[in-house]
Write a structure and sequence with these properties.
With about 230 residues, the protein is an alpha+beta fold. The protein is built from six helices and seven strands, in the order E-H-H-E-E-H-H-H-E-E-H-E-E. Strand 6 and strand 7 form a beta hairpin. The protein is globular. This is Type I-PGING CRISPR-associated protein Cas5p.
């Protein structure tokens, strides 16, 4: 369910004092910046990560293009249009809710950080001797498997890929080192002040679903919000 976004046209009123309780269901990897070859996690989620989590609960899975359109609409129609300055995260994610809450003290259980490999997705329409895209995916349309086997007896993978791009997945994957944090079953408690309209929408959304992802799509958590 996608909840109403009309309240984004109103000036934020940060008057609700709440406690956000996050129960990680899997190890998390909360990367705050676009890295080079290594993805380092935060110990606790920052404001942008919390914003993304709340958007997930609300069902706001907007594309980059749609987010741009929403921001333009806010600038044009909002009661706060003169004061509205979009706040992208360090990774370039355009958050829509960061003006509607503030976070305070964070309490977390003891945690363990470790390195693992993450399947990073790319798309490339390259060619050459051994293109990354066809060599980086184990999947292929079953209807051309026999054709591929016959073709490669006398041809090469580059030529086959150029002829059959639509039969390959859109993305290929490559293993990338990434840091994860395991809270070992413990919860995070975060003091948060929030706009009442945002709180009302979250309260209704949580009646139907309290799970979402935090950090990346593997970092599933269960959340509760309590009034203080």
């Amino acid at each position: 369910m996608i909840n109403n976004i009309d309240f984004l046209l109103n000036k934020p009123e940060i008057s609700k004092h709440l406690k956000l309780i996050i129960q990680p269901l899997a190890p998390l990897s909360m990367v705050s910046e676009i890295p080079g070859s290594y993805y380092k996690t935060l110990d606790t989620p920052d404001k942008f990560k919390i914003s993304g989590l709340l958007e997930n609960i609300l069902g706001w899975h907007f594309s980059k293009n749609d987010r741009g359109k929403i921001i333009k609409h806010i600038k044009k129609k909002s009661a706060r249009k003169k004061d509205y300055v979009p706040q992208p995260s360090n990774s370039g994610f355009q958050c829509l809710l960061v003006d509607y809450f503030e976070i305070g003290m964070v309490f977390k259980q003891p945690s363990v950080q470790y390195n693992d490999y993450w399947k990073r997705s790319f798309t490339r329409l390259d060619s050459g001797a051994g293109p990354a895209h066809p060599n980086g995916t184990p999947n292929l349309d079953y209807s051309i498997i026999k054709e591929k086997h016959t073709f490669l007896k006398n041809g090469n993978i580059s030529d086959f890929f150029e002829k059959r791009k639509r039969s390959y997945p859109m993305f290929y994957t490559t293993p990338t080192p990434r840091e994860y944090i395991d809270y070992e079953g413990g919860e995070m408690h975060i003091s948060i002040h929030m706009d009442p309209k945002l709180f009302d929408q979250l309260k209704n959304a949580l009646l139907e679903n309290s799970t979402a992802y935090l950090g990346n799509s593997e970092g599933w958590v269960d959340i509760k919000i309590e009034e203080i």
